[in-house]
Amino acid sequence: MTQHVTAALPADASSDAAERRDWWREAVIYQVYPRSFADGNGDGMGDLPGVTTRLPYLRRLGVDAVWLSPFYVSPQADAGYDVADYRAVDPMFGTLPDADDLVREAHALGLRVIVDVVPNHCSEQHDWFTRALREGPGSPWRERFHFRPGKGPDGSEPPNDWESVFGGPAWTRVADGDWYLHLFAPEQPDFNWEHPAVHEEFRSVLRFWLDLGIDGFRIDVAHGLVKAAGLPDIGHSEQVKLLGKQAVPYFDQDGVHAIYREWRRILDEYAGERAAVAEAWTPTVERSALYIRPDELHQAFNFEYLTTGWDAAALRSVIDRSLDAMNAVHAPATWVLSNHDVVRHSTRFADGDAARGLRRARAATLLMLALPGSAYLYQGEELGLPEVTELPDEVRQDPAFFRTAGQDGTRDGCRVPLPWSGERAPFGFGPVEGGPSWLPQPDSWKDLSVAAQEGDPGSTLEFYRRALAVRREHPALGAGHQVEWLDAPDGVLAFRRTTPGGTFVCTVNLTSEAVTIPTPGTVLLSSADLDPASAEASVPADSAVWWAA
Q1: Best CA proximity match to 379, nearest among 36, 9, 93, 24
Q2: Burial class (CB in 10 A: 0-12, 13-18, 19+), 45
Q3: What pLDDT was estimated at residue 170?
Q4: Rg from Cα positions in the chain
Q5: How is residue 1 annotated by DSSP?
Q6: Judging by beta carbons within 10 Å of its beta carbon (0-12, 13-18, 19+), is residue 235 exposed, middle or buried?
Q7: 487-531, pLDDT tens digit by residue?
Q8: Which end of the chain is less enclosed by CB atoms within 10 A, N or C?
């Protein structure tokens, strides 16, 4: 039997992507959800000092950069995506010096740091919004948001029929009779990006964090900043589903692009290849590509790839369309399987069978890492963590869970704190054995902890480490702009990558049976045990293989 084959990443190796120009084009970026990554002070909530202590783990994993979800001052109505102060660290996560320490330590380890910026909306406790409420109708502070009179004889109906992504009306009425717009929770009023003060504020916020040394930004709701003139009704039959993928007058308006041209000029002022990635839910990958034209942002998340199921034809189609769209604007494609807002892919792909879900998840990882462009990993996927589907209602914190017309409130299930070590919860999440964690972990996670998997050649953790090491050692992986599809049986994807760094073949069997194929070369890595014959190889069901051709 042929096990996963590769040389180990040297413990003292620095990040190649962190050193080279245009590092973001082929980088592997690891998302840290700070409240669930590591707890440094034992209060049950992850924090920046906890992240800093675990940076060597990420370096050994082999990623190039770390993306941190929000850690700013916030009342936490939406897990920090309701920001009250964009230039300060919330005490639950630490202090501004803690953020500075994290950035410096990451750079010392050869890791870049990307932070979230949330420009579509703020917290109801943001100074601007509290002033707007205090000063009443006609206040210039209200012009920085979308305040409107209501409809009907007494103004008791919302100004239009827009619905919140979290369910229910996108408008809330205040005591003086005005209504304000919030595309998400009522605690998250939307900024009015037609006001010059909003532009100036965020230019200042970007420079604040760039001056601290961060390497880039992930832009939350990048598609939502500009609303259609007049805020027109859209009709209930067209109401937005799945975070606004359909064309609606409050998402993916062409006016957003002028904002990102401003931001690109700021990023280009700074040495060190600072970069930005858009969270832009758009109707097509072609629309997503508009956000990363040469004078705009550097990357956009590929949500069409993320939402594609375990189907060979569908995956091949989205890969081709993604590469064509990004190549048209000379930008890299991005690939992602999980994040803090979606069900973990080991569960999405399971079809009710956890073992099958993990097999498919590992194979999907090899497929993703073999494609040209940049890949994003979500914390815990390298441990094979499943979605936690049986959280008690009383511990849930996702605002969507409490709004009956909105999403199902499933985001808490992918945000459960990571297991690091030990036999009982919180499995090393904090410094005190048996201490608290803000969401409970399943007892079964003791077998999925970092300590339990470390050194086990069959573990998912060691599989990820090998995959990232091979990707680093073989420049054909991640580089280039296209794939060359090869003939393959139904339900099997096979493609060749040829770059100045070498030639490489990826084979993915998405069927429920083993498939025999001609051996295209020497095995670099397999997501499952492989038993090659002299001229043919039997690729197991739900598995992927990398070959040096």
Answers
A1: 36
A2: buried
A3: 97
A4: 23
A5: -
A6: exposed
A7: 999 999 999 998 887 899 999 999 999 999 999 999 999 999 987
A8: N
Distance, in Å, from the CA atom of 96 to the CA atom of 143, rounded to the nearest integer, reads 31
- Find the length of the chain: 549
Annotated catalytic residue: which of 82, 98, 190, 220? 220
Task: Please tell me the distance from the alpha carbon of residue 31 to that of residue 115, in angstroms, as a whole number.
Answer: 10
Which of the 8 DSSP states describes residue 385? P
Is residue 268 flagged as an active site residue? no
Q: What is the pLDDT of residue 501?
A: 78
Q: Is the pLDDT assigned to residue 246 strictly greater than 60?
A: no
Token digits of residue 102 = 């994290």
d(CA 125, CA 250): 23
Express each pLDDT in 484-497 by its tens digit: 999 999 999 999 99
CA distance 359 to 442: 21
| Catalytic, out of 22, 135, 269, 531 | 269
Residue 417 is which amino acid?
Answer: P
Structure tokens at 73: 């001052």
Q: How far is CA 132 from the centre of its chain?
A: 33
Q: Report, as an integer, the average pLDDT of 259-284.
A: 96
CA dihedral 517→523→529→532, nearest 10 degrees, is 50
Residue carrying structure tokens 């508009």: 290
**CA distances in angstroms from 223 to 40, 109, 162, 220, 283, listed in the order given:** 35, 34, 16, 8, 11
Is 254 part of the annotated catalytic residue set?
no
Percent of the chain surpassing pLDDT 70: 91
* Confidence check: pLDDT of 12 > 60: no
3-state secondary structure of 38: coil
Q: What letter would DSSP give residue 109?
A: T
Please tell me the distance from the alpha carbon of residue 131 to that of residue 372, in angstroms, as a whole number. 48
